[in-house]
Design a protein that fits this description.
There is one protein chain. The chain has helices at about 30-45, 65-75, 90-105, 130-140, 145-150, 175-185, 190-210, 240-245, 280-285, 310-320, 340-350, 350-360, 380, 390-400; strands spanning about 5-15, 15-20, 50-55, 85, 110-120, 220, 225-230, 265-275, 290-300, 330-335, 405-415, 420-425. It has about 425 residues and is of the alpha+beta class. The strands form two sheets. Strands 1, 2, 3, 4, 5, 8, 9, 10, 11 and 12 form a ten-stranded mixed beta sheet that branches. A hairpin with a 3-residue loop joins β11 and β12. α6 crosses α11 (about 340-350) and α7 (about 190-210) crosses α11 (about 340-350). The chain is globular. About 50% of the residues are buried. Bound molecules: coenzyme A (COA). Coenzyme A binds near residues 239 and 336.
Amino acid sequence: MDNRRVAIVAGCRTPFARSGTVFRDLTAVDLARTCVRELLERTEIDPAAIGAVVMGQVVPSVKAPNLGREAALGAGLPKSVPAHTVNRACASASQAIADVASLIQLGHVEAGIAGGAESLSDVPILHSRRMARILVEAQKAKSLGARLRVLARVRPHDLVPDAPAIAEPSTGLTMGQSAEKMAKENGITREEQDRIALASHRNGWAATVDGRLAAEKCAVFVPPAYEAVTADNLLRQDASMEALAALPPVFDRRYGTVTAGNSSPLTDGAAAVLLMSEERAKAEGREPLAYVRSWAVAAVDPGGQLLMGPALAIPMALDRAGLRLADMDLVEMHEAFAAQVASNVQALESDTWAREKLGRSAAVGTVDRDRLNVCGGSIALGHPFGATGARITTTLSNELKRRNARFGLVSVCAQGGMGLAMVLER
Ligand SMILES: CC(C)(COP(=O)(O)OP(=O)(O)OC[C@H]1O[C@@H](n2cnc3c(N)ncnc32)[C@H](O)[C@@H]1OP(=O)(O)O)[C@@H](O)C(=O)NCCC(=O)NCCS
């Protein structure tokens, strides 16, 4: 790792929008190519110097399943630049960063773009298997009469769409139900969850007003009028504990504590970072924002506490970096749900948990709340599944530089019981 350090040169993202609003008519490809094009323009990199593009997407389009390739072509990169798409659920963009970093470390490429996009306004709506079979048979029918006879088999219930759910295929539980289970089993109170949500909005708002987040965003020109969208539209200036406390629980209406206010919302957006070998960055006279020091992925039983992957991945990534949690100047933890953040932080701080799950004698360490998600998190800013890891990495890299700090930690929980952690250094 020390021989060929991977530099994070720059990052940018589109504004993040509640799905079904300003980016309603755009696709993930539209958002991703806008973001990648902007990154190329801002960094003034020679497009021919890009050796690879890797993008994350969790709910891919059936018509354009390789988002990475479409984004690269759409952004005007040379057609000779290979590109692919990864799916590690909500950690996809972080996985894309790890993939490009690996290519650079191996010496396969000198520079690459990693990121991701999601349009939850544009999820594929499926028909039932029976309806799909009828449609395929009708298409193959040799005459109009035969086609009509096949179509006459359609019954009203066949017309009911089969929309994808944000649920674990292996357990059937939704993410929200899993967060609810974690809150109950770990004794995470409603108040604690709402405090995390409030901090997310307060920090996000402060970083927006003072321009820190604005600098990371590119405008998206939305047809037909091509008006520029520049603002995140989920962030609330007026967030308060009172307003959060008034919201009803969503996933367990009677006894639950997880609400629309302390969950990440369904979001459209894209984000990307430019990575380079240290040598190449230096040769081009660039001052990297930060370097990738280590990363790790861990997985837990999805039938247990689904979103505890980060608590396992964090000590692994820290060990690989030869560092401790206490060395981290800033921590960015993706907020799928406040209950998941609180549960993971609690685990990291627990001696018992460290003994039982890690076989260690003492806790991994404490997460100083003043260093956690200092520019807001996914609850307030939004969470386009495939893009979040690149949003977090961009913000953390910029903030490390701004504070002249040394080490930063990224963690992202993901469907399937996985968690990804990455240590950045300056
Ligand atoms: C939680 C969830 C079901 C809520 O969906 P929703 O009901 O469409 O959410 P909305 O944004 O409409 O919010 C519901 C209400 O709460 C209000 N609200 C949300 N956040 C609030 C806040 N911080 N303060 C005050 N009110 C708030 C909204 O204004 C809305 O009020 P209204 O009904 O009067 O318009 C949805 O966001 C969800 O599924 N999130 C989880 C996504 C997920 O699983 N991600 C995977 C994570 S890895």
